[in-house]
Amino acid sequence: MMTNLFISFDPTTMFLFLNWMSTFIGLFFLPLMYWLIPSRWIFFWHMIINNLHKEFNILLNKKFNKGSTLIFISLFTMIMFNNFLGLFPYIFTSSSHMIMNLSLALPLWISFMLFGWINNMNHMFTHMVPQGTPPILMPFMVCIETISNVIRPMTLAIRLTANMIAGHLLLTLLGNTGPMLNNLVLILIFIQLLLLILEMAVAIIQSYVFSILSTLYSSEVSYVK
User: What is the membrane topology here (predicted)?
Assistant: First the structure.
């Protein structure tokens, strides 16, 4: 039994930060393109990429979306593999740390803001005041929109971190109560299996939410006259 529930989120191993290397384990699961006859895994992966490309392509501006979907597809792939592989024993979940998620969200948000304010300054100003706002409420709306825009990278990172930590802590708590429930072990295993299936779905959903929100933030600044 673990003395500390949060010890599974410790990135250190023998005084070294080697646990962060698990971030790149997902690269080994990408299908190789060396075969003359594609495998089912390659067909399945291409189907996922094509569906994501169509989904992101609808949200992005047609003038600026040449190759832009690759950024968000790569982001989705990286987060999904980290979330999913973190459910396996002895694999460190790097996406459960704020420093990891914020390092993904903050550079994207800064690049979007720089692009928007440099190329579409008038559009960025008009975006702060929704259409039909009474003049007396315009100063308040500017403050609210500014705050909501500034906290976007934090909300992206906190949402992903909180969902990953909550699921892992719940699985850990149920696992630690196993030795104390001698007669209910089968029920506990069944509950853990259901929770594990739920966490697999959450791992995919949260990676999709992170990438789709990043795409929406990108589409807001790529305004075409």
Answer: Multi-pass membrane protein
Q: Take residue 88 and report the two structure tokens written for it.
A: 């396996």
Q: For residue range 190-200, what is the model confidence (pLDDT) as tens digits?
A: 888 898 899 99
Start-to-end CA span in the chain (Å): 62
Angle, to 10 degrees, between the axis of helix 68-85 and the axis of helix 185-221?
160
Cα(126)–Cα(129) distance, integer angstroms: 6
Residues 103-130: pLDDT tens digits? 999 999 999 888 888 887 887 777 787 7
Amino acid at 41: W
- Residues linked to residue 13 through DSSP beta bridges, in sequence order: 16
What pTM was computed for the model?
A: 0.83
**Residue 184 — φ and ψ, nearest 5°?**
-120, 25
Phi, psi of 62 (to 5 degrees): -65, -25
CB burial class (10 A; 0-12, 13-18, 19+) of residue 217? Answer: buried
Q: Are 59 and 215 in contact (CB under 8 A)?
A: yes
CA dihedral 90, 164, 170, 91 (to 10 degrees): 0
